[in-house]
Every structure is written in C-alpha cells, then in structure tokens.
Design goal:
290 residues; 6 helices; outer membrane lipoprotein receptor (LolB), chain A; globular; 11 strands; alpha+beta
Amino acid sequence: MRTTRRPFLVPLTVPLAVVLVAGLAACGGPGADREAPVAQTTASAVAEEVVEEAPAEDAPVDLTPETLTKAMISAQTAAGSYDVSVLTTSGPESRFGETSVQMDGSVKLLDGRASVVMKVVTPGLEAMETRVIDRVMYLNMGSTTQGKFLRVDMDDPSDPVAASMRGFDVQFDIRATLEAQVPAILNVTPLGEPEEIDGVMAQAYVLVTDLTLLPPDMVAMLEESQAVSGINLPDTLTETYWIGPDRLIRKSVSEIKGMRTERLFTNWGKGGLIEAPPEDQILSPEDLIT
C-alpha cells in the first residue's frame, strides 16, 4: 500500500500536452544553449510604465514590437479579466495524429500570475476541469479522480503532475508572453482590413518571433512541455493577433508542427467567477492510496 499520483499522468498529459506546446509556443523555444536577452521587468511593471501612454481608442498604433505590445499589456492589465475559448487541432502529420482539444473558461490577471478555471474536452476522453488559484491547481478528471478535484502544488519539484503542468497558468497571462517576445519579434505587420469579432472591429497583426532569442526561463518552460509532448518547435513562430481599437486581443491564431490553435477572447473586464472547489470536493490522501 502506498500513495501515488502516477496513474493520473496518462489521461492528463496527452490532451493537455497538445495545448501546452501550442499555447507556450510564444513563451520559449529551442536554443537554450544560446545567450539570450533576459526580460528584467514584469508584465505589471511594464503596464504601469505605459498605462498613461496607451493610445486612445481610435488612435493608430505605431507599428513597432515595443509600442504595440506595451499598448496591449496596458489594456489587458486595465481590464483585469476575460473569458476565453481555445481550440487546438492536430493533423495526421503531428505526433498525436488527427485530434482536437477544446478549452473554455475564464482568466483573472493578477500581479505576475493568473488565476484560471478551464474545462477541457478531448474526443475519446472524459471531460476535465482545471482550476489554478495562487499556483495551486485543482484537477477534476471525472471517474479518474472519482468526480473530485486532485490538488497539486504547481511549485512542488517532486510532483510529476506539477512538473508536467508547470506552464499551464502562464500561457493564459498573455502579458508575460508578450513581454518575453519583445526582444525576439522580428517584425509586426498589419494584415487585411479590420473585421468584426465579438462586436468589435479588430485589425489583424502578424507577429514573427525568433524563438531562439527568448529569455532562458521561457525556454526552460517550453522544453519541459516539449519533453511531455515529444514535439520540437522550429526556430521561428508566426502568430496572428486580431486587436480591437481598445488594444485588447479578440482572437489569435498560430500553427506549428501540424497543430493549429485558435483562441477567442471575450468579456474583457467581466470574466467569469474563479474560486477553489470546496474541501468536500477535493481528494483526500486516503483516496490516493493504491
């Protein structure tokens, strides 16, 4: 008789590894052995610096990586929360074959981190619910966790589940991703005419990022995700962001190694409720004994 969490790894890591690699593509990449510039300020600090400089709602954005990303960070910090729908699909050429992962939930942006509640649906697997609050993750994997939540300290180096999910909440704080990208963005280009998304006319911008120039901590995070998924990233990543006149992201699309990820952002400033499950819905140590 012993306590273990290892049986939970199989149903957990396969669908979320797809999302982690796709979602963290902008947070790091290969080339950890190269000397890379390290971002010295936090997303919240950047936002404080530029909040008074953010363009007016109908003002044009000066198209440099610094001005565009700072305006976006400032707008997101001011909004504070949002709802998001993420669809990641993979084709036959990907390691996972043809499959999809649908995630729907809410995010609250805090000082340097995010609180998250997300429901995950993958064909052939039970629906899962993930909550992250103050770097504590709660995982409900249906019958696998007896309909309750497994509590995981995401900063516990001895926990294999925590190791596999280290970057889950980080990918939803887009401010940190944008901040880390700035020194590595090769170019930013407007694409086509504005289109209506969620009632807002949003302009598409294409960002091309050299992943080898990202900060080492982001590289390390992504390498962990790559180890779980077995997917290696290319040296450059092309993403498209649809940005409203308020500088808030309404949609983003990226494609990498046969995986396409589309994220839709709604209800900026009015994101859904995020709270920890009650104690009677959390697995006890006795429940984990096998």
